[in-house]
Amino acid sequence: MRITSLRAVAVAFVLASSTVTISGTTAAAANSNTISGITDGLARALAGELTDHTVRDTLTKLAPVTPVDVRALDVRGRLGAVIDKANADLLAAKGLPAGAARLSEVRLGSPTMVNALRQGVTPLVAATPNDDNAKTFVAYAPGGKAETLPTATVPRQPVLFVDVDVKTATRLGLAVIDRETARHRKAAPALTAQGGYWATQLTSIRFKDVEEPWFKGAAEIFAVVGGFDLNGDARTDIVDMPYLDDENTTYYPNQLVIHWNRYKYNAADIVFMEDDGDTNYLQLAQALIAALAYLTDTGAYQPLVNAILQAMPGSWWTDDPDFVDACYTLTQQANDTRTCAGANGTVSVRPFWVSEL
């Protein structure tokens, strides 16, 4: 899924140029292999296996519109080392702990390809393009011969895409962000009223103006909530939204997104982001830490989104696929439906009392 608006903000959160060490790993090291390069190499290796009729038969039976582990097609056991190396490289490229999960997966580009695959049409294998605006992509025929295909229309020939398991990556990545930002946060006691505290509940959410190319897999949406903690320091909290899959669809999560006992002022902002597969969570955590270091408590609330924009050099104001939208100045008393700043997101919120047991 691809959601487009206010793209400049995203660059503040996906700063790739620094090599500051976080937990013993450098962002530069995590960037030594790109997601596209890793998945392209795995696509070539898998295409080489498709000359084997047993592998082709397995693929035909699977017809995986829903993603499956790449190992499902390694029926001869010849790709084990290649797959293990790709998974290790993917974890590093996404800034995730080594050995945390297997992230490589494969899927058919479109449900319309299932019949052709089952009728024996020769399949191609490709890495999923990270660029939603790509005009062409490279696919590999059985044996590994490269072909260039346009993205404008869905091919009649089945295309098997090697992709990243973004659901797993997002879950692990948000834990990385929470851990790293917490390490750089001064200790501040949570302000808890007797018997509980107030939170903001997200009762519905909807995004529009979504460009979802046929070749892209599902994206994972998450939110960065920003405000000032009880010490007066800027802080962020990460909220996973794994249910958010489709455009022009209203979801009713009843999810708690802001916990007001953590904040000094009666105002907070929410920035919605997505992982299309190429998000590096270690760099994202690093960017948040760097941006928040510029912010000081002036005795009055200042929007976190604006402050980050002002802190970022103009050279970083470029198109980025990972920003969705931002909602400014949500308060503890907010009980309404509002459109976010980029007019892509519409959210309904209400106060929610979290009582003690």
UniProtKB/TrEMBL annotation:
Keywords: Signal
Keyword Signal: yes
Residues spanning the signal sequence: 1-23
A Pfam cross-reference name: DUF3103
Classification via InterPro entries: DUF3103
Protein's recorded name: DUF3103 family protein
UniProt KW Signal keyword: yes
Organism: Actinocrispum wychmicini
